[in-house]
Design a protein that fits this description.
Length: 160
């Protein structure tokens, strides 16, 4: 069996090694993975931000997410960094910035339902309750076997 890639070791960290009850250990394990990459590596910064975020260390996570964006991410991480940054901003009371990020994102592929869910939460926090409910309903519509037309119409009737 061949050597595991860095991404496989990161996946293994998230599926089995991350331990919320051991924040120092979790950070240390991810720090070791990050150290395998060149300084300023976008993917490493993103994953390190995610550990901080998952442990409730939002201020540190926000800085790292912004550094990862600046360093340039591609693929799935390029989408997820914006969703995760926006979610974290919302958690610290910056829901207006979260809305701006999530509304300006292009379609997020398989992560678009997550983008819409976090957008609905941020819109609600901004007092835009009709927009929040509309976003949540329209995210739900594609998953339904029936009622798509009527729910889409009802969502369109909600106040803006």
């Amino acid at each position: 069996m061949g050597e595991t890639t860095w991404d496989q070791r990161v996946d293994s960290f998230w599926t089995g090694e991350f331990d919320e009850s051991d924040p120092e250990g979790s950070i240390a394990r991810m720090r070791a993975l990050v150290a395998e990459r060149p300084p300023g590596d976008a993917a490493a910064l993103f994953e390190f931000a995610g550990v901080h975020d998952s442990l409730g260390l939002e201020a540190e996570a926000i800085v790292l997410y912004r550094q990862a964006i600046e360093a340039g991410l591609d693929g799935e991480r390029a989408t997820r960094v914006l969703i995760q940054l926006a979610s974290t901003l919302r958690n610290v009371g910056s829901s207006a910035e979260a809305v701006a990020i999530l509304e300006s994102m292009p379609h997020a592929g398989g992560d678009d339902p997550a983008r819409q869910a976090f957008l609905a939460l941020a819109l609600f926090d901004e007092g835009r309750h009709g927009d929040a409910l509309r976003t949540a309903l329209l995210a739900l519509v594609p998953t339904l076997d029936g009622y798509r037309r009527s729910l889409t119409a009802y969502a369109g009737e909600l106040p803006r």
